[in-house]
Design goal:
Elements: H1 7-19, H2 24-31, H3 35-44, H4 63-90, E1 95-101, E2 106-112, H5 117-141, H6 147-159, H7 165-172
Antiparallel strand pairs: 1-2
Helix pairs in contact: 1-2, 2-3, 4-5
């Protein structure tokens, strides 16, 4: 077990912690101690969150930039869908199987009526990934904060079951028997 550090050094480390200008590792290097020692001193001094760094909330994009970003995402969503369709179409087209090899490193190919199982699986997985990405973009842009959906959320959270059935059905679209 390493020797306990002297009080003067401990006070200097605590002073650096309280100043908040250096990170834990920088303080450890400055005082030639382990980062865990600096963390322990902070905890002992009642400052367990001294080195917790929170990232700032991202600023929302201004109106025109947000609209441009949404249009670009819509274009990407369409491209992902188109790629998924192309890959699914490839499942039913002739397939060229090829290889390089042999002592002379020759190229050989053979036309098959359809892709082999491994190629079919790769096409299916690629199409599914493209489709998932298109759906993720779609979900991102259809938030629950627009129009009637916002009212429906409000009714569900504020009124719960206390709203008249006709009102709940009209606003939220839920079927009330």
């Amino acid at each position: 077990m390493p020797a306990r550090i002297d009080q003067g050094r401990r006070d200097a480390i605590l002073s650096d912690i309280q100043a908040g200008l250096l990170g834990r590792n920088a303080i450890a290097r400055r005082h030639d101690v382990a980062p865990s020692t600096v963390g322990s001193i902070a905890v002992d001094a009642g400052m367990p969150a001294a080195f917790v760094r929170e990232l700032p909330e991202p600023e929302p994009l201004p109106g025109p930039l947000a609209a441009d970003a949404k249009a670009r995402r819509a274009h990407l969503e369409e491209r992902f869908l188109a790629e998924a369709e192309l890959m699914l179409d490839e499942l039913h087209r002739p397939y060229v199987a090829y290889s390089f090899g042999g002592r002379d490193n020759t190229y050989a190919e053979h036309q098959l009526p359809a892709p082999p199982d491994t190629a079919r699986r790769n096409l299916m997985v690629s199409a599914a990934v493209a489709m998932d990405k298109a759906l993720a973009i779609s979900r991102h842009d259809s938030s629950a904060t627009d129009g009637v959906t916002e009212v429906a959320v409000w009714v569900r959270t504020r009124m719960g079951g206390g709203a008249p059935p006709e009102m709940r059905q009209l606003i939220t679209g839920e079927v009330i028997g």
